[in-house]
Amino acid sequence: MTRYFRIAPIVRSQAASVGLAALLAVCVFLSPSPALAQIDSGSIVGDVTDTQGGVLPGATVVATQEGTGFSFTATTNEKGQYSFRNLRIGSYVITAELSGFKKTVRSAVQLHVQETIKANFVLDVGAMTEEVLVSGEAPLLNTQTAEMGYSVDSKQLNDLPLLGRRYTELALLQTGVVPSGAGVASRGEDTFFNSNGNFSTWNNFVLDGGDNNSFSTNLQERTPQVIQPPVDAMEEFKIQTRTYSAEFGRSAGAVINASIKQGSNDFKGVLFGFGRDARFNANTFANKAAGREKGKFDETVAGGVLGGPIVKDKLFFFVDYQRTSTNQAQSNRATVPTALMRTGNLIELSRGISGSNPFVPAGCVDATTKVVSPGCIDPVAAKLMALYPLPNIPSELAKAGQPGSFGLANYINNDPLKNTINSYDVRLDARPGSSGKTLLFTRYSYAK
């Protein structure tokens, strides 16, 4: 059994005060304990038989992760069965060999998050120096569990268009997942979604096996996640909507199980930049109804990722950085005092004014014309009134002076809402010792 442990703090703060060196020191002195259930990993199992269907106990099976060179060895039992549990996701090369039989190799076996795939081997009689390469087969099916889910790999994440560069947009590809109602998500790029009729706040977000739920009650941060890595930094994520195992027992909604990329023996990096502005946007409904032009909108998303070896086959790094800057006008409607009201003429009010109102001094208001005597207007109230903007919606301006016309929103503004998000992740993967039974990784995430 492979064992590994993680230290993956998820941080949202004003300054990154925790150094990576201190974090690694914690890793070194922490005693590793067996990880019996790793929700961000997968498993490979299978049978080894001869060409007549007879089981082959004692066969040696080796699974090697492409890119890192991490290899794991298992021996078939008396029933010819082998298993690799808690493997890192990724592409594997699996070999099976036994004295008196040709060595058989399966290449490009793709293992996804929380997946158990079965890879069987049939060995031909011959010398072990002879090799049989198995390739071009149909993708191996996950027949070991009854869970309902869908894995989105890095190719889909990078190739499919995403509003706001949020990977969880692709959760909508899964059956039973729909966008949340307007009461929860007022902007399309916020990616609140319901799964099989369950509320969006019932979903469970997991990142690298750790809890990534914001536990917000008011959703002011406009996302149910604490950390949202850049799309280019994601290895894959899996959305599970039904019959998932008891280790995901936090809530009744979907489980969004995501993993950040790990470094490999090759240096790989990407620089990216995206831009949006008002020229590509239609006007808002509120603006069009008020006869106003569309407001300002500028958004840039830029950053990069880089991964590679520190010590070949032993220690790897992966880093990412993304800056999102948005300057977007918000259409806000309000009801403000009209020009007539500022002079004391209240004819536009729909309700009458009683001359016997105890709060209105006698002789100050003409109940018929609804006009307040200038001498009865408090100077402080007049200064406060002057702070309000004048109505600017044409359809409401046309009603000026009409009795009973006051009440609907008569003012709209497009003040810009500026928001800048800086975020980065640093991840290290290590394989200490020569036994290969222990894997270690640490990740530090920051977002402001």
Question: Which properties best describe this structure?
Answer:
five-stranded mixed beta sheet; about 40% strand; 6 helices; about 450 residues; elongated; mainly beta; single chain
Structural write-up:
The chain is mostly beta strands. 8% of the residues lie in helices and 38% in strands. The strands form 7 sheets. Strands 1, 2, 19, 20, 21, 26 and 27 form a 7-stranded mixed beta sheet that branches. Strands 5-4-7-8-11 form a 5-stranded mixed beta sheet, with no helix packed on it. The model is unreliable at 1-37 and 185-189 (pLDDT under 50).
Number of helices: 6
- Coarse morphology: elongated
Largest sheet: 7 strands, mixed
What is the multimeric organization of the chains shown? Answer: single chain
Q: What is the structural class?
A: mainly beta
Average of per-residue pLDDT values = 81
Poorly predicted sequence stretches spanning 5 or more consecutive residues: 1-37, 185-189
Query: What Rg, in angstroms, do the CA atoms define?
Result: 32 Å
Q: Could you estimate the helical fraction of the residues in percent?
A: under 10%
Number of strands: 27
| Binned strand content | 35-45%
Kindly report how far apart the N and C termini lie: 39 Å
